[in-house]
Amino acid sequence: MRVALAFLVSMAASVGFIGAYQLDAGTQWLALSLSIALGSLGAGLAWWSRRLMPQESSEEARPTLAPPPEEERETAETFEAGRRGIRRRGLLGGLLAAAVGALGLGTVWPARSLGPPPSSGFRQTGWREGVHLIDETGRRIGIDTLDFGGVVTVFPEGRDPAADDQVVLMRIPLEDLDLPEGRANWTPDGYVAFSKVCTHAGCPVGLYQDVGYLLLCPCHQATFDVVQGAVPVFGPAPRELPQLPLRADRDGLLLAAGDFSGPVGPDRWRLGEVKDGDA
Ligand code: FES
């Protein structure tokens, strides 16, 4: 009974883990439910091993060939009790398989956090020459929108927001910028723009540290040096964030001067698309 209860608790905790993940309940609930699932499973296995599957061996003096009727009756009762135990083992084995299955499902479920899937044409995003930059309210961005040190997420005007269109726009004194060759005229009045999609696993690179001009990805702590062209300086990101060239029109509004300097997002997206295209 105690073993079955432990397996049932483990299953319930695994389901709770999935629920906590879906509801974004926080890491405490994820940790608590996963701990209960693992702990209950372990306790159930330990109890089962100790109480229902005795390991000790015992010896008995050779009985007389014709045991007394009393002994025969005891032997029959013991045999019958063993058969009941075997039936319980079948039930507990089923519960164990269900608990392990629920735990396995719970542990692979967060793989959905690996980031949004790529759009079919991610090599070409919504950014084109002449497309205005807008913020999340739809307001156009002008050269007076940000102070130096400021940051805002922007999108291409006239297009439904797509994950690979997100751009993080910062304003940095021109004399602090040390961008790769050929990008000197991509930064009107110190505005510099990079894809917000991390090149490691696709999380949004949402944290900006204006002291040192660093962009940080919260998923696995990749850190990008903005003034050097958003090259990775720490963490698992394999390459820089692609830069969006900018220019300002006569009214002082910011526009894209073309598409990104490179492919958006993790390399595995690109590899996947190449395979699809080759097929
Ligand atoms: S997604 Fe892993 S560091 Fe950004």
Question: In a few lines, what is going on in this structure?
Answer:
The chain has helices at 2-22, 27-52, 69-108, 267-278, and strands at 133-134, 151-156, 167-171, 191-195, 207-209, 214-216, 223-225, 231-234, 243-244, 246-248, 254-256. With 279 residues, the protein is of the alpha+beta class.
Q: How many domains, in number, for the residues?
A: 2
Q: Considering the protein shown, what is the CATH homologous superfamily of the largest domain?
A: Rieske [2Fe-2S] iron-sulphur domain
* Architecture per CATH nomenclature, i.e. the level-2 architecture of the largest domain: 3-layer Sandwich
CATH class of the largest domain: Mainly Beta
Give an account of the 3D structure.
- Strand 5 and strand 6 form a beta hairpin.
- Helix 1 (2-22) runs antiparallel to helix 2 (27-52), helix 1 packs parallel to helix 3 and helix 2 runs antiparallel to helix 3.
- With 279 residues, this protein is an alpha+beta fold.
- The chain contains 4 helices and 11 strands; from the N terminus they run αααβββββββββββα.
- It folds into 2 domains: 2-54 and 71-114; 133-278, Rieske [2Fe-2S] iron-sulphur domain (Rieske Iron-sulfur Protein), CATH 2.102.10.
- Mean pLDDT is 85; it is low at 273-279.
- The protein has helices spanning 2-22, 27-52, 69-108, 267-278, and strands at 133-134, 151-156, 167-171, 191-195, 207-209, 214-216, 223-225, 231-234, 243-244, 246-248, 254-256.
- It starts with a helix and ends with a helix.
- The strands form 3 sheets. The protein has a 5-stranded antiparallel beta sheet with strand order 1-2-3-4-9, with no helix packed on it. A 4-stranded antiparallel beta sheet has the order 5-6-7-8, with no helix packed on it.
- FE2/S2 (inorganic) cluster (FES) is lined by residues 198, 200-201, 203, 217, 219-220, 222, 235-237.
- FE2/S2 (inorganic) cluster binds at residues 198, 200-201, 203, 217, 219-220, 222, 235-237.
